[in-house]
Write a structure and sequence with these properties.
The structure is a single chain. By secondary structure, the chain is of the alpha/beta class. About 50% of the residues lie in helices and about 10% in strands. The chain has 19 helices and 14 strands. Strand 2 and strand 3 form a beta hairpin. It is elongated and about 100 Å long. The protein starts with a helix and ends in a 17-residue tail after the last helix. One of its GO terms (cellular component) is lysosomal membrane. Its main location: membrane. Intramembrane-cleaving aspartic protease (I-CLiP) that cleaves type II membrane signal peptides in the hydrophobic plane of the membrane.
């Protein structure tokens, strides 16, 4: 940080932007979609699962599409090697509301002779049609259009015609959940039905008219645990660990300086009264309560204004914060080496900025270039590495600058965030008909991969791909309490076993671990991480403080009392 004023300005801006953003940790694309509006009943009780539809054109592997399975019909194969390659044809009529009338390959009189030979009489024309289409569609998939009749009617007709599956093209670009109508009784459907988006259906129709196209239909399951979740857990825990020791070290150094002034009776002591550590912003109880209001307003703004241009604005803001965070971390790290110590302690006055160290000037071009390169190439497959580096540096810097003075403020802050998280992930569906938090995290309306205020790692062994992600707030908010615990331990000169930091750190790690367990049990649906992290972290801290008799001091002061060494206390005569 260049000067105290710039540090305060930077901290205030970052708190407004970062702490207002919250997110469930993992949103790699749900493969199971539950629906309470269309309840299950016998014959219509499947979960809505995403379905992979890889294609082969004239025997050569081509594009892979993604559809969604219907509420009715059999469950799809989960393993690719067990799914059959099946030829796909276009239904005639396209809506498949009547028996298909695809072109007959042999003259009608030829079939009459066959029927007379095997049946002994002239069979009915409808029997002929059924017999022909049963032979022609045996082992093939029928591609039909949505509309003019129910989904189950289309599936029943395709089944009677001999199709082994039916692909229904939606009339919109998104997917639609296919359910059974309330008055339908013929739901004993034995072929799978899959909905495709409009663009995928149009592409398939174009290929089928000029080539022989075959498809596979299968719905692979996610692994119980992906390596990405393990690394993301380590990143979150490691970030808080580093920030805790940095903050505790700064606090201890400031306390040592204050003790020296007290012992010497220096005149500089007057100037330090009422002033905290340079560049540090302490959260008050009122600001902790206002957090919910500010964060909610910011989230609604993201939800309503979510678009390509708004994401670009957030990318710029993230780059500014990432540059400052990376610069602060690099300067602090390099200052530990004696080769750079002198450059870190030599300052130059710059207009509008104030005093800036030579070391800061040296690392700034690198930090700016790093952020610019990430912003330009953020859509490439490995851009998550740069985003995580900038994000971790920003989080560590925020945890170094923003502090809670006592456990009371920490309790109010986490309790408000706990309720905020639950409301915007779960309760918001009642008013907005979708989870506002999850929509914003995914960036569903922006045309991009979501907002950049996330740590993300690609799911390496997940057949559906996607990313495991965790919002900055899920690290920063509980991290403020964990950082406070280590500062308190060091100032109280407690050992690791006697202190609170070890238990707070373990509680946070367990809370995040339970979040991932709940995530996998819910088939990949985004989870409000603070729903699990807050009870673990805050509950452990409060319970341990109560048992040890330190709760009153933790709740009010948050640090040990420092009696003046010049005042001698004499026992009564």
């Amino acid at each position: 940080m260049g000067s105290r004023s710039s540090a305060y300005l930077y901290a205030s801006a970052v708190v407004c932007l970062v702490l207002s953003w919250r997110s469930g940790p993992v949103l790699g694309g749900d493969i199971v979609h539950h629906d309470d509006v269309a309840p299950k009943r016998p014959g219509c009780e499947n979960n809505f699962v995403l379905v992979k539809v890889p294609t082969w054109v004239d025997g050569v592997e081509d594009i892979e599409y993604v559809g969604v399975g219907a509420r009715f019909g059999p469950t799809l194969e989960s393993k690719e090697k067990h799914a059959n390659h099946t030829r796909i044809i276009i239904a005639d009529p396209p809506d498949c509301c009547n028996m298909p009338k695809n072109k007959v390959p042999l003259p009608f009189d030829r079939y009459q002779l066959l029927f007379r030979k095997f049946c002994g009489c002239l069979c009915d024309y409808h029997l002929y049609l059924f017999f022909f289409f049963h032979l022609k569609l045996k082992g093939e998939v029928l591609l039909v259009h949505r509309g003019n009749c129910s989904f189950t009617t289309k599936a029943n007709i395709a089944q009677r015609a001999g199709a082994t599956a039916i692909l229904i093209i939606n009339n919109h670009t998104e997917l639609f959940k296919m359910v059974c109508e309330a008055n339908e009784t013929d739901v004993s459907i034995e072929i799978p039905s899959v909905m495709l988006p409009q663009d995928a259906g149009a592409s398939l129709e174009q290929l089928i008219t000029s080539s022989t196209v075959s498809v596979q239909l299968y719905s692979p399951q996610r692994p119980l645990v992906d390596v990405a979740e393990v690394f993301l857990w380590l990143m979150a825990v490691g970030t808080i660990l580093c920030a805790s020791y940095w903050s505790a070290h700064s606090s201890r150094e400031a306390a040592i300086e204050l003790d020296k002034l007290l012992k010497d009776g220096s005149d500089d002591l007057v100037q330090t009264q009422g002033v905290g550590i340079s560049g540090v912003v302490e959260i008050s109880t009122m600001s902790a309560v206002l957090f919910v209001v500010v964060a909610s307003c910011f989230l609604i703004m993201l939800y309503k204004l979510m678009s390509y241009w708004f994401i670009e604005v957030l990318v710029v803001l993230f780059c500014i914060g990432g540059i400052e965070g990376l610069q602060t971390c690099l300067v602090a790290l390099l200052s530990c080496f004696r080769w750079f110590g002198r450059a870190g302690q030599s300052f130059i006055e710059l207009p509008l900025v104030g005093a800036v160290s030579y070391l800061t000037l040296a690392v700034s071009p690198f930090c700016i270039a790093f952020a610019v390169v990430w912003a330009v190439f953020r859509t490439v497959s490995f851009a998550w590495i740069g985003q995580d580096i900038l994000g971790i540096a920003l989080i560590v810097t925020v945890l170094q600058i923003v502090r809670i003075p006592n456990l009371k403020v920490g309790t109010v802050l986490l309790s408000c965030a706990f309720l905020y998280d639950i409301f915007w992930v779960f309760v918001s569906k009642r008013w907005f008909h979708e989870s506002v938090m999850i929509v914003v995290a995914r960036g569903d309306r922006s045309g991009e991969d979501g907002i950049p205020m996330l740590l993300k790692i690609p799911r390496m062994f997940d057949p559906w791909g996607g990313y495991s992600i965790i919002g900055f707030g899920d690290i920063i908010l509980p991290g403020l309490v964990v950082v406070f615990s280590l500062r308190y331990d060091w100032l109280e000169k407690k050992t690791i076993k006697e202190g609170y930091f070890l238990w707070a750190m373990i509680a946070y790690g367990l809370g995040l671990l339970v979040t991932y367990v709940a995530l996998n049990l819910m088939d990949g649906h985004g989870q409000p991480a603070l729903l699990y992290i807050v009870p673990f972290t805050l509950g452990t801290f409060l319970t341990l403080g109560k048992q040890r008799g330190d709760l009153k001091r933790l709740w009010t002061r948050g640090e040990p009392e420092r009696p003046c060494p010049h005042v001698q206390l004499h026992p009564p005569q």
